[in-house]
Design goal:
alpha+beta, 7 helices, single chain, eleven-stranded antiparallel sheet, flat
Length: 281
């Protein structure tokens, strides 16, 4: 006699579960049983994205500062010709002919120092220092001219007032009090060895337009020396510490005000045309 096959004790329960699931989801599409999973980016992916943004920002900054963007905005590289240099050299020669070589300074009192009877000589001793530089666009060109003034001599009678005199003698020691007669009133001569001036000129590239000076400034005074003082080196050094800043200011004001007027007047008589420079980009 054949025996009946044994029933799996779990089969009925499995079928029941399957029938229940079939009924529960029979009205839904098969894909409804699966949920969509949204994965957040990993820390590594976030870091890579941030680095990419930074690289793009740095590239943009580089392009903005480069000639590529300058060319796109209408500004290109500029190369002056020898004719341009000759033009401004003649302007400076004419200014030299019109300029006084010596000027008188106003009396002044600054920080316990009185300066009277001052003069500056050697103002005609200047030269154009090549090369010229320029920057250009479709409508204008800017020219940068360097001028060097050489060996300007500043002379004045200096009187040291009591407070400053006492400070100097205090540093030198009471044994040098006998120098008081020499220190109170001194005829001082100072030499400004080289003074560099930068002049900026703009030429609008339209018919009938002439040059305009837009800036005139002292960029450097290389050295100021005290001359012809029969004093100890220590005392000369102390006086230099007091007088050098004052002379520096005097020379700057003289060049940027009085001398500027004469040079500017001559530069603004001339015209730079397109044949005097090359503008590319």
């Amino acid at each position: 006699m054949l025996s009946k096959p044994e029933r799996d004790p779990n089969s009925s329960s499995q079928h029941s579960v399957w029938r229940w699931l079939s009924k529960k989801h029979s009205s839904k599409t098969p894909t409804a049983c699966f949920s969509t999973i949204t994965r957040s980016p990993s820390p590594h992916q976030t870091t890579v994205a941030e680095m990419d943004v930074k690289r793009r920002a740095l590239l943009f900054i580089f392009l903005v500062s480069s000639s590529y963007i300058q060319g796109a905005m209408g500004q290109g590289s500029c190369q002056p010709s020898p004719r341009m240099e000759d033009l401004f050299r003649r302007c400076l020669e004419q200014a030299r002919a019109e300029m006084e070589d010596s000027v008188t300074l106003q009396d002044n009192t600054v920080e316990n120092v009185q300066m009277t009877g001052g003069t500056v000589t050697g103002l005609r001793n200047f030269r154009l220092t090549p090369p010229l530089r320029c920057a250009c666009s479709r409508n204008w060109v800017d020219i940068f001219i360097n001028v060097s003034f050489l060996d300007l001599t500043v002379t004045f009678l200096v009187t040291l007032l009591d407070d400053l005199l006492g400070g100097l003698l205090g540093q030198l020691g009471s044994g040098l009090a006998r120098l008081v007669g020499q220190v109170v009133n001194l005829l001082v001569r100072l030499l400004a060895v080289e003074i560099n001036v930068e002049i900026t000129v703009r030429q609008r590239l339209i018919p009938g337009s002439k040059c305009t000076v837009t800036d005139f400034r002292v960029t450097r005074i290389s050295e100021i020396r005290i001359l012809d003082l029969n004093l100890t080196p220590l005392l000369v050094g102390l006086l230099g510490g007091v007088l050098t800043p004052l002379v520096n200011t005097i020379v700057r004001n003289l060049l940027e005000r009085q001398v500027r007027v004469v040079i500017t007047r001559n530069i603004e008589k001339v015209t730079v045309d397109r044949s005097m420079f090359t503008c590319s980009g």
